[in-house]
Amino acid sequence: MAAVAWIAVDWGTTHVRVWLMSADGQVIEARSGDRGMGALAQDGYELALLALISDVLGHGPVPVIICGMAGAKQGWAEAPYASVPCAPPDVSSAKRVPTQDARVQVYILSGVSQRNPADVMRGEETQIKGLIATQPDFDGVACLPGTHTKWAHLSAGEIVSFQTFMTGELFALLSLQSVLRHSVATEGWDDAAFATAVDDAMGRPQTIAAKLFGLRANALLGGLEGAEARARLSGLLIGIELAASRPYWLGQQVALIGAAASADPYETALTAQGVPVLRMDPTDMTLAGLRAAYSKLDQI
Amino acid sequence: MAAVAWIAVDWGTTHVRVWLMSADGQVIEARSGDRGMGALAQDGYELALLALISDVLGHGPVPVIICGMAGAKQGWAEAPYASVPCAPPDVSSAKRVPTQDARVQVYILSGVSQRNPADVMRGEETQIKGLIATQPDFDGVACLPGTHTKWAHLSAGEIVSFQTFMTGELFALLSLQSVLRHSVATEGWDDAAFATAVDDAMGRPQTIAAKLFGLRANALLGGLEGAEARARLSGLLIGIELAASRPYWLGQQVALIGAAASADPYETALTAQGVPVLRMDPTDMTLAGLRAAYSKLDQI
To answer: What would be one Pfam family of this protein (chains A, B) (predicted)?
Structure first.
């Protein structure tokens, strides 16, 4: 194994991912665990980290660069938000966290906040940093679909403004825990139903709460199939998001950073609106962002 | 105790309520249990009913008039929907359910459905029947706030059209199970926050998914209090409902049938829009509706 020069970490709510990095920025090995923020008390983070990496630590201290929820108030140590407009944070503004084990030097990257309208992100700013690092000429909008989808205006290497939508969480709650769970399948899809629902919701977004119950009623009365209901539910929720995020995507190029399951429907819907979409792999962007953040270490 | 001439039953998803009725339509006694549709298999209904009433049964058969989810496909016996436009169903179209115990004659009232847009109700139609029975001159719109809020156009004793909104269920899911549970109190209220949120949502309904996350961000960044967040969440959801239900309430008198906790915010929001509101007690309406449905028994 090549020598581990530093360690990149994405510490989310439910999972933690670790990459052992060489001096020239290559991934030596990727590792992961399920001890996310939700499963850890403040004093549990160091041991959880060491459990993933202690076998590769030598005598000298190794920098560990962390993005994500580990920097939240309920995380390992609070890394205060940077405020827009700003470049996605690097180690120069990171929270330096003391550890009992001297073999690690832990830095937690700041999230980004916006005053008005109030908004926050933790983790996505590092993916955006990766986008800026790998596409330095990109000037436009980033969309990061997920539990809490983020839209961000980027310009000259900075996040200018951003907005979060609870679309992914609404989809999960409605499809798994509401009365719609009887009508919405857990898999399967219908392209036409999705497209129609996006158009419906964009055209008359205020009808969303009625359209949602309509899925149930159509299943009871009209035999709406579960896979079609699933695509329609997704289309309704993405449709109202696109109606509200129009100032972000209209006339713009959109870099779409997300796993296939969440990003594919966004690509379909945006393409139907004539928006040019640049798909970027979310893990690649996280890693590129952590690499860019780490690159400033010799300046502090 | 006066003689029990018939028995009125409201059999919902989570509870069952029973009223022992005299020949002149007075309530002799009210009883209730927690064996709703969700807790019963088809063959469990008769015993669950008898457990509540067997002590008052004599030799002759007693009519039992049931409204609500007992008539659903997953209930005691399916009572097919009546289609709008129609008067709220009475016993003449009820499902007569055979019982092993000859001391009861069970009738389950039909729900009401609508073909386009597809919609269904089970239980609310009987409250509407109660409204029509007690306010025979009422011509306007009924609003029944709840888990699945119903709006219904009434004319000449019939339900002309109706629409269901998942507002109550969305409020419960978002306030108790989403990321907002960290920011939204389980009680408390703020009138001004509610009013502002209703206006925001009615004016720009498409922004709902962003406004929802805004509650979380404002709690993190701006110290938004839990009670204010609760009122704002309610206002946002009722606001988008009022934006979509405008064709129902605009220029109309609205009979509002619901428990205080769910109906009070609707009254506040509708009154702010200049809509005259007639408050009706939901239990009184259920009972009046069952009484009106029972009154047709001698005609079958």
So the answer is: DGOK
Question: Is the bond into B265 cis (omega within 30 degrees of 0)?
Answer: no
Question: A91, exposed or middle or buried, with CB in 10 Å at 0-12, 13-18, 19+?
Answer: buried
pLDDT in tens, B93-145: 999 999 999 999 999 999 999 999 999 999 999 999 999 999 998 989 999 99
pLDDT in tens, A18-67: 999 999 999 999 999 999 999 999 999 999 999 999 999 988 899 999 99
Measured distance CA(B297)–CA(B164) in Å, rounded: 30
Phi-psi region of A17 (alpha: psi -120 to 50; beta: other; left: phi over 0): beta
Using CA atoms, how far apart are residues B209 and A215, in angstroms rounded to an integer?
A: 19
Query: Do A217 and B179 count as a contact with CB atoms less than 8 A apart?
Result: no
Task: Give me the pLDDT at residue A34, please.
Answer: 95
Tell me the C-alpha distance between B95 and B112, whole Å.
Answer: 14
Which of B221, B225, B250 has the most A C-beta neighbours within 10 Å, making it the best mutation to test the interface with A?
Answer: B221
Stretch(es) of chain A classified as CATH 3.30.420.300: 6-122
* CATH superfamily placement of domain A164-280: 2-keto-3-deoxy-galactonokinase, C-terminal domain (3.30.420.310)
Task: Tell me if residue B18 falls in helix, strand or coil.
Answer: strand
Residue count of chain B, please give it.
300
Question: Which residues in A120-146 are b (16+ Cβ under 10 Å) and which e?
Answer: bbbbbbbbbbbbbbbbeebebbbbbbb
CA distance A107 to chain B (A): 22
Contact A200, A158 (CB under 8 A): no
For residue A151, the distance in angstroms to the closest alpha carbon of chain B comes to 10
Residues making up chain A, counted from first to last: 300
Query: How close A207 comes to chain B (CA, Å)?
Result: 5
> What backbone phi and psi angles, to 5 degrees, belong to B250?
-65, 120
Please name the member of B169, B178, B237 whose beta carbon is closest to the beta carbon of A179.
Answer: B169
Q: How many CB pairs under 8 A join A and B?
A: 132
Contact A179 B164 (CB under 8 A): no
Domain with CATH 3.30.420.310 in chain A: 164-280
Domain B6-122 in CATH 3.30.1950.10? The answer is: no
Tokens of A126: 């590092």
Residue from B198, B206, B248 to probe the interface with A (highest A Cβ count within 10 Å) = B206
